[in-house]
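Box 3.1 A note on notation
Throughout this textbook, protein chains are presented in two layers. The first layer is the amino acid sequence; the second is a token string describing backbone geometry. Keep the layers aligned when reading.
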Amino acid sequence: MKFGDTIIINQPYKKVASLFADTNNLKEWQDGFTKKELISGSEGENGAISKIYLTQGKRDMELVETIVDNQLPHSFEAHYHHIHMDNTLKTSFISINDTQTEYKTEGEYTRISWVLPKLMALLFPSMFRKQAYKWMENFKHFAERQE
């Protein structure tokens, strides 16, 4: 299942990419973000593996992120593994002008192994896209508050 979206951020391109690259900012735009721990490799480098901890409602969730291709400030691609699903997400930043940046995501769920998410993906595929777009909107609002 593939999904993607684009949003315009009213900030310069390099600033937007810098805010995105700083893992200290994850709590500012990813709902439920608790922490990110480097497991192997060098932070931000291709091949680096980290655990990301999220809390959603009363549930704790753990993802393993593997950086596939970090070309920031232009693009960032990573693979995310969860016990019940795998997905890849590519984020791109394109300068529109001196004060605006296009923020684009392209994602694909490559494995969904649990019955409930699999059923939701078949019946309500927009739910997966909506979560990704919500984080994009959160990031936009966070970035536009920065001076």
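The beta strands are 2-9, 33-40, 49-56, 59-71, 75-82, 85-97, 100-112. The chain has four helices and seven strands.
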